[in-house]
Protein 1
Amino acid sequence: MERDYSDVSKRVLALSAGETDTVALMATMACELFHSDDRFDWVGFYRVVEPGLLKIGPYQGGHGCLVIPFDKGVCGAAARTGTTQIVPDVEAFPGHIACSGSTRSEIVLPVFAGEALIGVLDIDSDQADAFDEADRQALETLLQQVFSMAHLPEEIIA
Ligand code: SME
């Protein structure tokens, strides 16, 4: 199925033009993505706050768990490996962390500022097998465009 990210990408890039603060960029991207596609029931970021540890960042949807170590969940897998995780059936993913009982599938992408991993972008869907290669490519491209100029957060520099 053709996924059209052109409109939401244009909006995100226009809204975030010139911005370098990672939280502001995350909040803008989470808001616009959440409202752009009826597959997306939760959209949010988890931030690298110290080596091996993620903490919740800006998100839209029901409450998300606050802390995820790199050795836990789909988010931990994306952070640990530095690669996008497409999960067609969350029940089949060993160690999936269920923030909502209605989530059926998920995509989680690493977020880089230059070479530094600064977090992950997590999108959950109540639809089974909602994400594919087209989502991965479009979201990875948009993340690179938005965060390539971002300043490293204090916790990453420290
Ligand atoms: N499902 C994620 C946890 C984050 S909640 O879905 C917002 C995981 O398994 O890492």
Protein 2
Amino acid sequence: MKRPVWIDTDCGVDDAMALLCACALKDIEIVGVSAGVGTTSQENTFRNTRNVLALAGRKDIPVYPGSKTAWIEPYMPAPAFHGEDGLGGAVIPESDAPVETEYAWDAFYKAAKKYEGELTVVTVGALTDLATAIVKYPDLPKYIKEVDIMGGAIDGGNTTMASEANIRRDPHAAQCLFKSGIPVVMFGLDVTEQVRLTPADREEIFRKNTSVTRLMEESIQIPLSTNLRQGLDTYTLHDVCPVLYLSKPELFEGKKAAVYVETQSPLTMGKTISDVYALTDDKFPDKNTLVMLKADREKAVSFFKELMLSYE
Ligand code: RIB
Ligand code: CA
């Protein structure tokens, strides 16, 4: 049996690439996808997710509507990295797949029960949908094998000096996941920032003209101009990392540690605090997170290219 996987996304530019990579993996079965607020509104992320899956030829994968707001924090879109619509203005056909109306957390709980503890969850947006399911269904943790998140940072941040966007958007939900006892694999900025596409990598991908490479080329222009204004000509594959890990865990190295989220201080709100570099602090007893710290950049980028170029 293929490994059952659920993906929760706030479908922006790198989320789209992550979904396309996931659809190209041969050894997983994507049993459901949920789309919540994040890079842009929930309405946009829901539409983008449906359209990206249709582009991948996977209209059969159900997409469920996730949260329209974070639990407490205000809406924090990122138009400089994803455009106003989440896909950097790239135009792709509207999916005509049936529209699911069941809420993400309810559909997700049903799937988790159905797979009896074998379901792996990949989250590439805020943790709101997953944490809502954890609160609504207290027996949920025992049905989840592992949650692979793109989020957080042991050092630094990208939304504020202290926080990464997916955790900053809903720190309370993130803290709920880290405290739930579910095994978490954390792909924070510490590792995702190592997996960057150079101009040469992008050219190699764009030489093959398919609807998938065209979407990538069009959607990447806004974040690339933002990066260039900051002196960077690379593009970081944040959300792609936990997807690559599903099939090739050997691309990443990490350490088991405890992770907590700052939910009080206005200055460091959303910071992920970990004892990863000092595993003896007794304030940090719950070492249920594998914090990824190192990626094999060459192999990860080459696997990414292989998956993106597998579409005709
Ligand atoms: O910090 C990177 C994360 O923020 C990614 O998930 C990206 O899609 C944005 O939401
Ligand atoms: Ca994302």
